[in-house]
Amino acid sequence: MNIEIISIAKKEHSTYDPLYKELTKMISRFAKVQDLELFNKDVTKAHTLSPEASKAAYSKLLEPYIPKGYNIILHPEGKLIDSYEFSKLLDGKIAIKFFIGGAYGFEESFLKKGDSVISLGNITMSHKIAKAVLLEQIYRGFSLLSNHPYHK
């Protein structure tokens, strides 16, 4: 399986990089993970204008990545699911793309293009933390599907 995590984020080294690397290594026995962070001049400019302009800039930047595969969008108002439900999202797929938005979330029109819109919880977290939680849940999901003891 191929998994892509596509997020609105500036490419920069982070204190979380070793954690991402470790979780990606753990997942590698089940799937190949690619991490793509996107941020351009339009997003920078939109952030100075308004939340609506920012959401529109996110959509424009991310829409080319939607057409192929199963698309899961992370959004605060998405469906709250547990680890078992999350594992079912992974089951039987060939390719999955996870989308993590910028500071202002996503436009409703972008959310409608996803196959599933989920929330990682009711708390607000940075995209860096969200990515770590997502990676851990991906590993946990595969562990559940393969009856690996990690989940316990």
Structure description:
With 152 residues, the chain is of the alpha/beta class. Helix content is 41%, strand content 23%. The protein has helices at residues 17-27, 41-49, 51-62, 83-90, 108-111, 127-145, and strands at 2-8, 32-38, 70-80, 95-100, 116-119. It has a 5-stranded parallel β-sheet with strand order 2-1-4-3-5, sandwiched between helices. It is globular, with a radius of gyration of 15 Å. The mean pLDDT is 93.
Strand share of the residues?
Answer: 15-25%
Relative helix content: 40-55%
> Unreliable segments (pLDDT under 50, ≥5 consecutive)?
none
The averaged pLDDT comes out at 93
Largest sheet: 5 strands, parallel
Calculate the terminal CA-CA distance, rounded to whole Å. 24 Å
Question: Which term fits the overall shape?
Answer: globular
| H/E topology pattern | EHEHHEHEHEH
Rg over alpha carbons: 15 Å
Q: State the strand order across the main sheet.
A: 2-1-4-3-5
Question: Total helix count?
Answer: 6
Structural class call reads: alpha/beta
Give me the count of strands. 5
Which terms would index this structure?
152 residues, five-stranded parallel β-sheet, alpha/beta
Summarize it.
This protein has 152 residues and is α/β, with parallel strands linked by helices.
Give the helices and strands, then pairings.
Layout: E1 2-8, H1 17-27, E2 32-38, H2 41-49, H3 51-62, E3 70-80, H4 83-90, E4 95-100, H5 108-111, E5 116-119, H6 127-145
Parallel strand pairs: 1-2, 1-4, 3-4, 3-5
